Sequence to fold (243 residues):
Amino acid sequence: MMAALEVTLRTQGEIWFASREVGRLADTEPYFLNTALYYAFGFASGRYVDRLFEPTYLDDTDGVSEELYVTPATPSDSTGSGLANRITSTYNTSSDDYATINYSAQDDPDAKQNLPTYGRRRVLGHGNELTCYLLGRGLSTSELESRVPGYIRLGKKRGKARVETEPLDVSQDTGEFDLGHPIGAYDTDLTPVGNLVTKRMRPTPLVMQASYDGAYVELGPTNLDGKNGVQLPADATFLKTKR
Fold:
């Protein structure tokens, strides 16, 4: 038994994290990796105090990785019009070091220097819409929906996003298929056979499009009118090839 949901995330304020840094510009690209979504949905939790500064994704999701699979979230349509609001700002601030050494006037190494901290930041603002898909293995649709919170928080400043879900029908088949939604590069054992497009992201790259040959699931509403639904590898598991 497998249940599936289409999950829509609507930003309720600014969400910021550095997807890429170009010079003094820190840019938030419109992609929420599943490395973040597992924690945001409450499916996993990490250490409150991190003294090791090493990723613990595998350990944190060990109990749910086989049961729940969350795809990365992307703009709600291929044209990107789901992105209604992006905000660019310039900042000029003092250092945010946890401790500042107070030198005497004679010994201060920065006494003759002006060292401002400045740059530009582009973030996702209010009203943006992104979509991801949630698969529940061995769960009914109602059980899966009960696991999803109404709101989540994302990014460095814990920006808020509203969560809306829509149940989907699930069918399974084997053969050639085209990936219907981006997945993490390490989330399937299948090897692409063509049409591969990837996007470099941290901490894991995205497979934006690809053709595969193997077992797959097809997700869609009850009446597809002859159209294909969203096709994903049947073995899709968070960081599968790293386990």
Summary: The first strand starts at residue 2 and ends at 11. The mean pLDDT is 86. Residues 171 and 230 are 10 Å apart (CA to CA).
